[in-house]
Amino acid sequence: MPELIRDFLDPADFYKAVKNVGIDFFCGVPDSLLKDFCAYVTSHTPSSNHVITANEGAAIALASGYHLATGRCGMVYLQNSGLGNTVNPLMSMAMPGVYSVPMLLLVGWRGEPGKRDEPQHMVQGQATPGLLASMGIPFQVLPDYLDGAVQALESARQHMISAKGPFCLLVRRQNFLPYKLPPSEEELFPLTREEALVCVADGLDEKDVCVGTTGMLSRELFEYRVARRQGHEKDFYTVGSMGHASALAMGIALFQPSRQVFCLDGDGAALMHMGSMSSIGQRPIGNLKHIIFNNGAHDSVGGQPTDAAHHDRFSFAAIAKGCGYRETFLAVTEEEIRACVRRVRAAEGPVMLEVKCLKGARRNLGRPTRTPVQNKADLMHFLQIGK
User: Fold this and answer.
1) What is this structure's pTM?
2) CB 230 within 8 A of CB 204
3) Rounded distance, CA 155 to CA 145, Å?
4) b/e for 93-103, b at 16 or more Cβ within 10 A?
5) Residues 216, 193: contact at Cβ < 8 Å?
């Protein structure tokens, strides 16, 4: 029996093939299954033709504006978990029955049926083909070899010309050969996110509640509890729903006024649905404390930069102040973080602490061993104790 050889698509070859069908504008939110291609795009595309957007819906709008200005088609890349953010601008703007805007969607297919994945991805993965079909967006799986990928791109091109609407390519796990962003020339800050998180968590009270954002921060918080031989009942690990941790923390804080509620956020997540900061800032939620760990990167999906990486001209503190937060703090060193946590705990909320840290995580970082349903039950039981 002949031996089967596994194919992988070279990001450079696919990038060239994409440009050969007339696409040279890229925007979207990075994804773990697309990280090698996204990294190649980041390294080889002028900044004028590549925008990492705050969320996926904004990318649809941006690609639509690009089409209006140029008459050309852009590429929008995203994880399938971000399809929900795209539904409104796709259905009410881009589809042929409305403004008829052609664009190529490159979607990482987390939770593909038959593949092991995290619970939130399994749910999304099962729904992905049906969601695209219900929106009337034709799609096909991107082959993992160049000739097949070229044929898929030609099918997409023909559809975008004839139907003048979106076309989607679904990308399976390990479709691309590895490609990494060039390393940063300098380390701007002394602590990793995990080291900074330890400084924060050490300063919290046993009654305090933590809402951890999606990605590696929640995994690091889980392992912090394990290392300290503590339970996980005080923490909510937001395994999906990127960008919504602050609103979730707000909901807990409003109805648990005797507890301090700490939202442990990331820069990419905070940017994704930053409108929640206005909802928080305009309400007297004295027990809500918002801490953003800003490493300037989408760390869990390849390390592509966020807009918050421009430390000389971007300020979460200024945004929070403008939204109505009572106080804002900034910390970089261990001493500053520990001192600021004490001040944050003593302050009347809502308040924000921005912690600037390095990108990257331990190679041996584990994942929570409690299921999402167990995590929910643990937290709800804890919240009922000592109300």
Assistant:
1) 0.94
2) no
3) 16
4) ebbeeeeebbb
5) yes
Cβ atoms within 10 Å, residue 186: 5
Q: How far apart are CA 206 and CA 16, in angstroms?
A: 55
Return the SS3 of 265. strand
Q: Are 292 and 353 in contact (CB under 8 A)?
A: yes
Is the confidence at residue 3, as pLDDT, over 70? no
**End-to-end Cα distance, the chain:** 67
- The strand order across the sheet containing 327-331 reads 235-237, 209-212, 261-266, 288-294, 351-356, 327-331
Tokens of 244: 């919504």
Tokens of 303: 């390390």
Least trusted range by pLDDT, from 112-121, 128-137, 239-248? 112-121
- pLDDT higher than 70, residue 4: no
User: Biggest alpha carbon distance in the chain?
Assistant: 71
Say which DSSP state 347 is in: S
Q: Tokens 């900061």 correspond to what residue?
A: 277
Structure tokens at 262: 């700490």
> Where do we find the tokens 């820069």?
267
Identify the sign of the CA torsion 376, 377, 381, 384: positive
Helices (H), the chain: 11-20, 35-44, 56-70, 83-89, 119-134, 146-162, 193-202, 216-227, 245-255, 267-272, 276-281, 316-323, 334-346, 372-384
- What is the C-alpha separation between 283 and 325, in angstroms, rounded? 9
